Amino acid sequence: MASIGVIGAGTWGTALAVLLNGNGHQTEIWSAIPEEVEELKAAHVHRNLPEVRIPETVGFTADLQEAMADKDLLVLAVPSVFVRETARKMRNYLKEGQIITNVAKGIEENTLMTLSQIIEEELPQAEVTVLSGPSHAEEVSKGLPTTCVAGARKKHVAEFVQSIFMSRTFRVYTSPDILGIELGSALKNVIALAAGMADGLGYGDNTKAALITRGIAEISRLGIDMGGKMETFAGLTGIGDLIVTCASMHSRNRRAGILMGQGRTMEEAMAEVKMVVEGVYSAKAALALSQKYHVSMPIVEQVNEILFNGMPAKEAVSELMLRDKRIENSGLEWEEE
Ligand SMILES: NC(=O)c1ccc[n+]([C@@H]2O[C@H](COP(=O)([O-])OP(=O)(O)OC[C@H]3O[C@@H](n4cnc5c(N)ncnc54)[C@H](O)[C@@H]3O)[C@@H](O)[C@H]2O)c1
Hints:
Blueprint: E1 3-7, H1 11-22, E2 26-30, H2 34-43, E3 45-46, E4 49-53, E5 59-61, H3 64-68, E6 73-76, H4 83-90, E7 99-102, H5 115-122, E8 127-132, H6 137-140, E9 146-151, H7 155-165, E10 170-175, H8 178-200, H9 205-226, H10 230-233, H11 236-247, H12 252-261, H13 266-273, H14 278-292, H15 298-309, H16 313-321
Parallel strand pairs: 1-2, 1-6, 2-5, 6-7, 7-8, 9-10
Antiparallel strand pairs: 3-4, 8-9
Helix pairs in contact: 4-5, 8-9, 8-11, 8-12, 8-14, 9-11, 12-13, 14-15, 15-16
Bound molecules: nicotinamide-adenine-dinucleotide (NAD).
Nicotinamide-adenine-dinucleotide binds near residues 8, 104 and 278.
């Protein structure tokens, strides 16, 4: 049995705490918001996971030092926009070599850093790992079969994280490709916005399949140029996460996209979804990265046009359909004519 601090009391931190508690670990959740801690302590139910009872043995605290003290593992589960400020707050309490598993998904807009790079910058004494994959909190918290990947630099650390999370319904693979895992996880949210917009416009399964397939082509092109591995983009944290986020009603990025496809502005859609829509932040970062690495990312470009330059979603689809003619995979060769 391990002692685990879950830093972040959103739906994902809560679902993972329930999973870890079920695996027999002593689990305590920290929230930056004292009122949230009081609400969770009193109800043992998260307001956005109303069907899931949080066991009495899961602890809650607003005291970060307490949440981190004597823990074998810290799970960083705050939304990506709060990762830097939370990591900074953790600095004084983190022990040398303490393992942090980041489960948030995003890229910092102004620095273009991945979240583990941010954590390493703010907490140089940490052993940073990641856990990602096609895994919605609503399903994990109900024990529906799910698969994820634990990424770490060293094999034994990845295997430690794997052993902590793995259960009868939560299967965990390991990988040394932290960068590839994080890029796939962050960039898929941009494609999910596009998939939602296509749904909102009333388009069909053909359109969805096109967005998923051409979306992973864009993500892989950029990700490989940045140092991620092809195999990772073809795996659970690449195509796997992209499929679930483009298809599921649990995806807030897709839900926001649907509203925009139906004609709402970005601000209206974000207000209606009522949760942080991370794809909106990652969209700008993805565009900046595509320019920095000179990688063609037409879907990312059009999503940015819609979000920030007022282009109607329908027009953006025409732009994509009528781009200059291309070969599907530039790595393939023709027979000589
Ligand atoms: N929800 C999922 O199914 C899921 C699955 C995999 C990964 N993720 C990733 O996990 C991360 C968290 O997602 P979520 O769904 O739990 O988000 P959420 O929207 O449920 O998180 C809201 C929570 O953020 C916390 N918060 C608010 N302000 C804060 C601040 N200033 N500092 C620190 N914490 C603050 C509060 O505890 C609040 O309840 C995201 O990056 C998301 O992409 C989510």
